[in-house]
Amino acid sequence: VLYLFCAALTEHKILFLSSSYQRLTDACRALLALMFPLKYSFTYVPILPAQLLEVLSTPTPFIIGVHSIFQSETQELLDVVIADLDGGTVNVPECVHISLLPEPLLQQTREALSMVLDPELEVADLAFPPSTISASSLKMQDKEIRAVFLRLFAQLLQGYRWCLHIIRIHPEPVIRFHKVS
């Protein structure tokens, strides 16, 4: 999930494959939900019809879901990150470099997600674990996962104001984002 999340943030092509249309839609929507508060502004097609498979050759980034019976047509795509939802694999081609999160944030996010998805891990090594460990309901688990990613964005974007430069040569000041900073 973190590979797909980073691929979406760095504007790569992402293709979901599954034999279930519901799973394709849910996976595409979930990836967009994890990007909150950012909005995905490229091509987004949760279920791509068979007649439009040539869209996968477009040079622009996308998040697209395709039924797994068309998997043979997707094999020649060289610059597309392919997530097989039925097999549970993510295939990143050699020519695609996905920039992952900076290291302290990556490890913290992995740990936080593992604690949300498997809360027993937190007390697994204790000599005297508590008698009751309650797993969160699905609704609460969804909120906890969203909180992990929202906290990640807050940590990633802290200090962004140092990158804003005010240009005062115009009658009204202009704020410009200094990309290198």
Automatic annotation (TrEMBL):
GO terms for molecular function: guanyl-nucleotide exchange factor activity. Keywords: Guanine-nucleotide releasing factor. PROSITE patterns: DENN. InterPro entries: cDENN_dom, DENN_C, DENN_Domain_GEFs, Tripartite_DENN. This is MTMR5 protein. The keyword rRNA-binding does not apply. It comes from Indicator maculatus (spotted honeyguide). GO terms for biological process: regulation of Rab protein signal transduction.
